[in-house]
Amino acid sequence: MGVKNIKTSNSLSPDKSLDAVVAGYLGVDLTPGFNSARPSVPFAELFRPGKLIETQGLNFSLGGVVGNTGLAMKKFGQRVALMGCVGSDSLGDLVLAQLEKEGFSEGIRRSSKEGTAYGIVIAPPGLDRMFLEDPGCNRVFTSDDLDYDVIARSRLFHFGYPPLMASLWSQNGAELKKILGRIRDLGVAVSLDMTLPDPDSPAGQADWKSILASTLPLVDIFVPSIEELLFMLEPKTYSELLAKSAGGDMIELIPQDCYERFAQQVLAWGVKVLLIKAGPRGAYLQSGDVRALNATTPLCVPEPKEGFRGGWIAPFPVEKNRFCNASGAGDCAVAGFLAGLLNGATLEIAGRYAMLAGHDNLYGSDALSGLSDWTQMAKRIEP
User: Fold this and answer.
1) How far, in Å, CA of 200 to CA of 83, rounded?
2) Beta pairing class for 58-63 and 80-87
3) Under 8 Å CB-to-CB from 236, ≥6 apart: which residues?
4) Mapping DSSP to helix (H, G, I), strand (E, B) and coil, where does residue 37 land?
5) Mind listing the pLDDT tens digit for each residue in 186-219?
6) CA-CA distance, 220 to 232, in Å (whole number)?
7) What span, in angstroms and rounded, lies between the C-alpha atoms of 227 and 33?
8) pLDDT, tens only, 254-302
9) What whole-number distance in Å separates Cα of residue 362 and Cα of residue 105?
């Protein structure tokens, strides 16, 4: 039996007509299709200069945390509002038309400063994705692009991808800190997701450890990937392991003690719940002061059993013959995790929902089409 939506008596914000606001990076993903029967080979071997690679179709879908996590949470039965920016161009028209079909265009602003973001997603079977990404108007996204009256009516504010949003990470993350501090003052729980910047871009040269130290004290739930944490906290080790992976997936090369060490650091900065996404290895879950999270926000997360610090959440087995691509798998896993917490699940059960959502994502041609609804998921998680 699935967990039920719960009510909270938290007095900081009595009108909670929304479960969550999902805001931040928004764009369009263009994903060439690969034959699932194609043998899995190292990325560098597959993409050699002068080689022709036959594909099957081209999928057009919304991308970024707004298009992926936001719409996945809606599919999971959450009352969600979306906030982001698109350009005043034809791609922006397409994004708004797509969101209008879902009933979500109201919170999207149009920018005349930059175009709509787009990504070309290279996702061969059996390999992690590679992105060619133009952040477009996300570069100039600021605190003024958010509707705080709407956010005040939500239980959770989830924000994603500041490394691709130059106005937010510049000046040691001052604008991101401004946003998160204002949300905190509204008595709304704060969740944050990251993404890898281009190492050779200005964002890739930023002092991310310092930015995290400045902003994570304002974050309740942090859901990065292990690659992102490694890049931001130990860039030298990241570079060494990336070179050692020789174009393959570096996750298997990251030692166990990295997860434990990073978790200790992140929780010391004030995060209450940490979920580190680790691709085919599953996820690493650690909890901090959950009691403080419940006391200061409208969430009501069951407190972990005495002595619980967390641990690994195993992935669901993948049927290789059904695999389409992994584009948006991390975003969908986050959606499952947050929906579980909003529904009153324990941290461990919410972690299982995360793994199931990330698993189901692999079977769709885009980020959302492979997902089940919440009732079906609950039967598989809590029969």
Assistant:
1) 29
2) unpaired
3) none
4) coil
5) 999 999 999 999 999 999 999 999 999 999 999 9
6) 19
7) 25
8) 999 999 999 999 999 999 999 999 999 999 999 999 999 999 999 999 9
9) 27
